Amino acid sequence: MRILVVYDSMYGNTARVAGAIAEALRASDEVRLLPVAEATPAALAEVRLLVVGSPTQRFRPMPAVARLVRSLPANSLDGVRVAAFDTRLAIADVHNAVLSFFVRILGASAFAARHIERALTRAGGRPAAASEGFLVDGPEGPLRAGELERAARWALLAAASARGAAGGAEQAPRVAPPPRAHPQT
Ligand SMILES: Cc1cc2nc3c(=O)[nH]c(=O)nc-3n(C[C@H](O)[C@H](O)[C@H](O)COP(=O)(O)O)c2cc1C
């Protein structure tokens, strides 16, 4: 199965997640890993599974990722299974009142992955896994312990779903939530 993983990254954390995803999938599939600057709408449509990831910045994907997924013509992802991810701050542990407020109001739409997923499904893609966020402990990272492994598990679920027969967004599998940094709080 041909798989494309496209990502953007400012500080390197999302790039590491994308790398872990590509590596996990390479065991059984033909995987290309592309920074967003090298990805074209045509390349996105040529695969069976398309994985797109971005850091969450100001509740949104990075501009280059948003531009790319929004530029996809209608129906161009017909027959493509899609999976969107982001990296994001661990809101529960960050104690940032503004961030917490918007996350409460906007829910999943406060994060990049949901916006990416929406654009991909608008272009005809069908989710192979529920969109997912992987946690960083500060704006520049590091990634929380265990997140690369969780990303690999999420990607394997998406690949299994894409390899299988039918299944729409409502059946897209979900990976276990991340661990809390301070479970006692
Ligand atoms: C300008 C800026 C805005 C950010 N806004 C958000 C935000 O709205 N929500 C969030 O969870 N994290 C936010 N973050 C933290 C980023 O998600 C974090 O920097 C990113 O996950 C790191 O990924 P990268 O190393 O691939 O750039 C922001 C970071 C920056 C620099």
Quick synopsis:
The protein has a single domain (2-171), classed as Rossmann fold. 37% of the residues lie in helices and 19% in strands. The protein contains 7 helices and 6 strands; from the N terminus they run βαβαβαβαααββα.
| Approximate shape | globular
The major β-sheet equals:
6 strands, parallel
- Rg, Å, rounded: 15 Å
Task: Give the ligands present.
Answer: flavin mononucleotide
Tally of domains = 1
* Poorly predicted regions: 166-170
Instruction: Calculate the terminal CA-CA distance, rounded to whole Å.
Output: 43 Å
> Under the CATH scheme, which architecture would be assigned?
3-Layer(aba) Sandwich
The percent range for helix content is 25-40%
Structural class: alpha/beta
Strand content: 15-25%
Which superfamily, in CATH terms, is the homologous superfamily? Flavodoxin domain
Overview of this structure, please?
- By secondary structure, the protein is of the alpha/beta class.
- Helices cover 37% and strands 19% of the residues.
- The chain has one domain: 3-Layer(aba) Sandwich (Rossmann fold).
- It is globular and about 40 Å long.
- Strands 1, 2, 3, 4, 5 and 6 form a 6-stranded parallel sheet that branches.
- The protein contains 7 helices and 6 strands, in the order βαβαβαβαααββα.
- It binds flavin mononucleotide.
- Flavin mononucleotide binds next to α1 and β4.
